[in-house]
Amino acid sequence: MDFNDSFAYVPLFAIAIVSAVIFILLFNIKKKSTARVSFVAFVADGIVFVASLIAAIMILVNTENDAIFAFYSLILLAALFLFLPYCIMLCTFEPKKIEKLVPKSYNEAAKKSEEAVSEKSEKQSELSDDDKHLLNISRDYMTHAATAYTTDKGMTSFLEYINNSLKEEIKADGAAILLVDDFEDVIAVKAFEGDFPPPYKLPNDMPHKPVRVATNFKFATFPFKDNIFGEIATAGLPELITKPELDSRIYQNGPEEFLECGSYIFVPMKTLDSVIGITAFARKNGASPFTEDDLKVACTLSDFASSAIQNVLSVKDVVEHSEITKESEIASRIQNMLKPAKLPVIQNVQIGTIWNQAQGVCGDYYDVIVSRKDRVSFIMSDIAGKGMNSIVIMAMIRAMLRLVINTTQSAGKILSWVNRGIAAESFSADHFGSVALINYDPTKNSLDFATGGITPVQYFDNTTGTFSKISKPSEPIGVEKTIEYKDLVQNIKSGDIIVTYTDGLVEALNEQGQQYSEDKLLALIAKNRNKSAKDIANLVKKDVKNFTGNETQHDDETLLIVKFQ
Q: Whose CB among 226, 312, 313, 318 lies 3.0–4.6 Å from 148's, allowing a Cys bridge?
């Protein structure tokens, strides 16, 4: 054994001692929680300690490795100068509390927030009893607004509740809420309570009796000029009127005592600088007139009321639009199902179609039915109404036609049967349809057709190169069940064209408000008469699109072109 081998056990014993010290330091680190010490660290340190002692004993007994001294010396140096100082540092480190580690800016922001909340609380505590009362009324309005969302009469009840509340708070003899109707361009009474001497001219034929006058006001509407309500809504400014006899806008209906005007307060209800209505308050002649303080209270409460009412109106608009949109989507899908999935192939006949749906309308329907060797039926229909209403009539007409089209009856007789079935049902007046039924007999090269309503049938004579309308206007399907529709006949030859369409196509508008027109349609078809029916229909579709540009489509656009070869 050389010098290195004889002293190789020295670094091993030193490593064992250092491992023991590190074990103690690890224990203290874990106890003080200055760093995370896993169980693996304790096990690893213990293994080093035991292995070092065993190796040192073995070297003392016997060794032949000259490099073992240098190897264990390096391990000792690493333990002394790397791991041991790190453990000592962690053992002596004093951890700071978590809250002190939070950024200073955060603490400052939190402190300011606490101060703001405290200041707000102090200000709220400084509110007068009257202010607190008004705030409670505002919260009460918002609470009651929730009931207006859920029932059909919720809005009416909500407005009546607000009106009665305002009347009591201002100690008025009468109060009313009027809302602006943008569609009708009027302002209408929506809630009324108490004795309100009318400041407008009563109808000349109205008896001057309290019940009749009150009823007239309860359901009254006013234009935006020549009356106090409309002028207040237009001006958008509140007014206190204590001397109505000096105000030209106040009409004196007298001489009955209950019609004598006293004092009034009118306050426009605004949301985002837009007037949605007005609140109106009245005290009878002889009662203490309203004061400026009453006006301030009326303005404050009217602001609360306008916010609550606008919230209800907005929610109702969203709900109604959602319901209409949902119904429209369902109706559009049904309408799409009712049109032919695929046009039949008919010998010596070409068919071209256009079918552009307008959102929410669902009024057009066309069909091509091959029922017998001597009958091919072409149908064009335009149903009045919108959405599901028109879809119901459309489905009934389609079902009835398909049921009886295979009979030997003429087109006029078939339409008469269908009309009896539709008119016999208890639908409203706008539930009817315009239908053109064209039966083609390939064995005779002739058409047997009839029309109910205004859906046209145009005939292009290939010999003369001109169009002529061969249909006759008549009562629509579903209006009068006793109507008998007339049969019309037209012989056809090679190159002739039959065209039928709905008014949505020829009445399509461009950005200048001009209609596409029937003349423009027929001229385009005549110009391209040598093309196939499908190609002609595609040209018409493109031409209509170029004409209308970005203008919104307001009605279904449907075209059926039948070209005979």
A: 312
In the predicted model, is pLDDT for residue 540 greater than 80?
A: yes
User: pLDDT tier at 101 (50, 70, 90 boundaries)?
Assistant: very low
State the pairing for strand pair 239-241/221-222: unpaired
Query: CA 340 to CA 207: how far, in whole Å?
Result: 63
C-alpha span between 547 and 508 (Å, rounded): 9
Note the pLDDT of residue 310: 79
CA distance 561 to 553: 22
33-72 residue pLDDT tens: 666 665 656 656 666 666 666 666 666 665 445 445 555 5
pTM, entire model: 0.47
Q: What is the b/e burial string over 233-267, where b = at least 16 CB atoms within 10 angstroms of the residue's CB? A: beeeebbbbeebeeeebbbebeeeeebbbbbbbbb
The Cα 555–Cα 364 span in angstroms is 9
At 167, which amino acid appears? K
Dihedral pair phi/psi, residue 288, rounded to 5°: -60, 130
pLDDT, averaged across the chain: 80
Q: Which amino acid is at 160?
A: E
- Overall residue count recorded for the chain in this entry: 565
Amino acid at the residue 478: G
In this prediction, residue 28 has a pLDDT band, given cuts at 50, 70 and 90, of confident
DSSP result, 529-557: TTS-HHHHHHHHHHHHHHHHTTPPP-S-E
Q: 385's torsion region: left (phi>0), alpha (psi -120 to 50) or beta?
A: left
* Tokens, residue 204: 């000349």
100 falls in which pLDDT band (50, 70, 90)?
Answer: very low
Preceding amide of 255 cis, omega within 30: yes
How far does CA 539 lie from the centroid of its chain? Answer: 36
Where would I find the beta strands (DSSP E) of 442-527?
446-452, 457-461, 466-469, 488-491, 497-501
Higher pLDDT, 333 or 238: 238
| Edge-first strand listing for the sheet containing 274-283 | 221-222, 186-194, 174-181, 274-283, 263-271, 239-241
DSSP 515: B
Q: Are 276 and 317 in contact (CB under 8 A)?
A: no
| CA distance linking residue 475 with residue 415, whole number of Å | 11
